[in-house]
Amino acid sequence: MALEFLDHISRIIPSIKGPGAPLSLREKMMWTGVIIVVYFLMYNTKAIGLNPVAVSAPIQQLISILFAAKTGSIITVGISPIVLSSILLQLINGSGIIKLDVNDPQQKARFQTLQKSLAITIALVESSIFVSTGYVLAASQAMVVPVILQLTLGSIFIIYLDEMMSKYGVTSGLNLFIASGVSYSIIAGTFGVLLPTAIQAVASGGATALSNAVIAFIPLFVAIAVFVFSIYIYEIKVELPLAFDQFRGVGGRLPLPLLYVSVLPVILASSLEFSLTVWLHFLSGVTGPLQSLARFVAYYPPQNQGLIGGGLAYLIAPLSPPATTYTTVGGYSTYITTLITGTSQLYMPWGGFVLVPEWIHIIIYTLVLVGLCVIFGRFWIEMTGQSPKNISEQLGDMGWQIPGFRRDPRIVENVLNKYIPTLTMVGSIFVGLLAALANISGAIGTGMGILLTVGIIYMLYQQLKTDQLYETYPLLSKITK
């Protein structure tokens, strides 16, 4: 497909100009701080013209955390357009419909233009869907268009903040916004919800007062457990010895972590699942002969205020603990009981509604999430230059080789093929299982949010170490980059 027209679009769509010279670590940290402040200002700026009752209604907290969004604010849509545009372009580019080599500067520029254009389009479409389906409600019919415009502009601003972070900051904007949102929700949830609930339990007295107070903090205990366990897993790695053929005696190691693709598969897989529950809302308006099939795919009960409540799409959607889980004494115990004994609706075109045990929902959601993580994990290493072939070529270009083997990229590729595909699959399965189990447990900040935050902090720590090393020894940047 000819993509020369993207060169004309790139001159129309604004872009963030990169720094004229490499920034120091201190300058990157300064820009990162500024971007965080701007993000939180937007995070706490309410969209004008929204129905306050609708905004305060129970929503899926996991969606907001994953998309670094806050329902009712001008960034209600969050980073969803960026993530979805990335997924779509990966699928299109991988299928061969379009072919862009990101290693070529001109084609890379076209790829970025296409991704930004698609993200802006998705921002407008999702903002319209959010308002029209009742995910957020305008206070009046006259405010529908202004609210859509506010959400669209807020999401577009996030797109450019992400671009600015990639050029001036220490990590990607997506990572920073997700980690910031999760950290905020954990602190706010602990001191604004869990602590008052525990105090209420003690104040109520009775034989169960102390146990209810402890149970109130279980979501925080689960969050801490996921955090600690994730850090431990990130330290597990396979290290392959390396030798520098131009200098005898100079060697090193190539670390291949168990979580080779980090938490990116979870982000992509969950984004796809969440987006389906929102995008399929148009099926609620289907009438006539196709209504039965529409309800079988996705059912949106009127009392759910626009949220999915049944159908196949619901069975792959994550569990969302109700607000009462954290805000009422004994709410968490009730939630766990519901998981064990509760049911969900599945509309069968040939027999009406049937009740599906909630534990089946848990199993289906977990299996689908893990399967998508494996698919996206495998796809991601091919698209981002982390495949055995790409890594072997990079090592060869830098003059590294594996001791005991000839300096031939094909030989190195064969060695890496014994590790990277296996680590990619095992790591993707692990993050999928951990995210699913942590979400089901009802951890504050959501288990997936915590898992993502740990991965983001770990990557940021590694990047800061590298940047600091390059500043201390400038010659290393010329050798390794």
What would a concise description of this structure say?
By secondary structure, the protein is mostly helical.
Distance between the termini: 32 Å
The overall pLDDT average reads: 77
| Strand runs, count | 5
Q: What portion of residues belong to β-strands?
A: 5-15%
Query: Count of helical segments?
Result: 21
Approximate shape: globular
Radius of gyration: 24 Å
CATH class of the largest domain: Mainly Alpha
> What is the N-to-C succession of helices and strands?
HHHHHHHHHHEEHHHHHEEHHEHHHH
Structure notes:
The chain is mostly helical and 481 residues long. The chain has two domains: 26-170, SecY subunit domain (Preprotein translocase SecY subunit, Orthogonal Bundle), CATH 1.10.3370.10; 220-481, SecY subunit domain (Preprotein translocase SecY subunit), CATH 1.10.3370. The protein is built from 21 helices and five strands. A hairpin with a 3-residue loop joins strand 3 (343-348) and strand 4 (352-357). Helix 8 packs antiparallel against helix 9, helix 10 crosses helix 20 (447-472) and helix 17 crosses helix 18. Residues 55-59 and 475-481 have low confidence and may be disordered.
Give a quick set of tags describing it.
two-stranded antiparallel ribbon, single chain, 481 residues, 2 domains, mainly alpha, Preprotein translocase SecY subunit, 6% strand, 5 strands, three-stranded antiparallel sheet
Chart the SSEs and their pairings:
Layout: H1 5-10, H2 25-43, H3 52-55, H4 61-66, H5 80-95, H6 105-132, H7 144-168, H8 173-204, H9 209-216, H10 218-234, E1 237-244, E2 251-257, H11 264-279, H12 291-297, H13 312-315, H14 324-327, H15 331-341, E3 343-348, E4 352-357, H16 358-383, H17 388-398, E5 400-401, H18 409-416, H19 420-441, H20 447-472, H21 474-480
Antiparallel strand pairs: 1-2, 1-5, 3-4
Helix pairs in contact: 2-7, 5-6, 5-11, 6-7, 8-9, 8-20, 10-20, 11-16, 16-19, 17-18, 19-20, 20-21
